[in-house]
Design a protein that fits this description.
six-stranded mixed beta sheet; globular; 16 helices; alpha+beta; five-stranded mixed beta sheet; 43% helix
């Protein structure tokens, strides 16, 4: 059976590991409390920008060395940034544990070279442009900005053209030294891990991290103005788009909320890609290409998302069908048969995912970073299987009603004059 162990190093860095000697691989990752909600306006997009720079070389390795060593180890390594954290991770064979610790730890002491900074700035700007040019054309980001406000959880992870264009390497270094402190970081590990060896290796390689300078706090934002590049219109007009995209956000369960499992099961019953109520109502009938809901948990709050994609002429009717369906479930609750089906599917998915250490890594690292809590696979299965119709029906009553914001990305409405005009000869 897996064994959970944890410790805190003298410099404040925490290590948490779910050890399973039966595994054929080990997964490790540094989880840093550095996300878009930790930024101010002058730093907007900096957590993600900094994630890119971690792969651009250190005092010990060039950017080519970093990528070459990842290939040599035969592992899978990558990184991501969210609203609340940045994560650097890899999965390798157990015999390479010390080498991947060496590589990942060295990456978290980046050179932040000025030339690489300018090159990567263009990469980020292209990423923003590409993202805004693809469906749903920034509708999720706009919805987050409207629901949470344009700062904190509502701040865009990628930043804006304006914030990235004005970014400086000096500001990045200050942000790095302020957020990438050992007391702000968790090293998580799963699978066939030598825990004692891991602790000794990390302790040795991070001993100087607490010596990093502590820059002053950045200036506070002007809350009476919008951050540069941010708009708060609820409609995004896209030229020559052929579908309508609707994103809605309302209240959801937080990481700490005891009913988060009930909210997840409710989302499966309503919006799973096959066999859910929205599937049969809108997808199977051909009324919409996408119609789904899900619950997203943050540390101190949550969000309930509704997402629909359909032909523009069907948008009004489809919105009414979704509203009517959600209202009925909020009023009448869910049925035993559909809850049993959702539980069986969730339990099977949980078991299959747990077979790979790399799948377990993210839940363990994220939860230890934010709440210093560990949930085993058996604990999670117990919570899923213990859900009752009353539990999920209560979640429906809580999360399917109340205030919500809505953003629509679609083509600009055609005027009657334009529509009636004959083609020019």
């Amino acid at each position: 059976m897996p064994e959970f162990r944890e410790t805190t190093l003298p410099n404040g860095l925490r290590i948490a590991a779910e050890i399973d000697r039966r595994g054929y691989s080990a997964a490790l990752g540094y989880f840093v409390r550095a996300g878009s909600r930790n930024e101010v306006d002058d730093e907007s997009g900096l957590s993600h920008f900094l994630e890119h720079m971690m792969f651009k070389g250190t005092a010990q390795r060039t950017a080519a060395d970093v990528n070459r060593e990842l290939d040599e180890l035969g592992g899978q390594g990558n990184a991501y940034t969210s609203e609340e954290q940045t994560v650097y991770y890899a999965a390798v064979l157990p015999k390479f544990q010390d080498r991947i610790v060496d590589l990942l730890t060295d990456m978290l002491a980046p050179s932040l070279d000025e030339g690489e900074f300018e090159t990567e700035r263009q990469v980020i700007l292209e990423e923003i442009a590409k993202y805004e040019d693809q469906p749903p054309f920034g509708a999720f980001e706009r919805a987050m900005e409207l629901y949470f406000g344009p700062r904190g959880l509502g701040r865009r992870v990628l930043g804006t053209d304006e914030s990235i264009g004005a970014m400086s390497a000096k500001r990045m270094r200050e942000y790095f030294h302020r957020r990438y402190r050992p007391e702000n970081i968790v090293l998580a590990a799963t699978g066939n891990v030598d825990f004692d060896g891991l602790v000794a290796e990390v302790d040795r390689r991070t001993a100087t991290w607490s010596d990093r300078p502590q820059p002053p706090a950045p200036p506070e934002d002007d809350l009476l103005s919008l951050p540069p590049g941010v708009e708060l219109e609820s409609r995004i007009e896209i030229p020559e788009v052929h579908q309508s995209y609707l994103v809605r956000i309302g209240k959801g369960a937080s990481e700490a909320n005891h009913d988060r499992y009930a909210a997840r099961m409710l989302a499966a019953i309503l919006g799973d890609e096959g066999g859910s109520r929205l599937f049969w109502e809108l997808i199977d009938t051909g009324r919409a290409e996408v119609a789904t809901v899900w619950s997203h948990e943050f540390t101190d709050c949550g969000a309930w998302f509704t997402y629909m994609v359909c032909a523009p002429e069907d948008a009004t009717m489809n919105r009414k069908l979704i509203d009517d369906l959600l209202e009925r479930v909020a009023r009448n609750g869910v049925e035993e048969a559909e809850l049993v089906q959702a539980i069986n599917k969730a339990a099977a998915g949980c078991i299959m995912q747990s077979e790979r250490p790399s799948n377990r890594l993210f839940g363990i690292g994220s939860r230890w970073l934010t709440r210093s809590e560990y949930t085993s696979t058996d604990d999670k299965l117990d919570r899923i299987r213990s859900l009752t119709v009353d539990d999920v029906s209560k979640a429906a009553e809580t999360y399917l009603q109340g205030e919500a914001i809505e953003v629509v990305a679609a083509a600009a409405p055609r005027s009657r004059t334009a529509a009636a005009s004959p083609p020019s000869e």
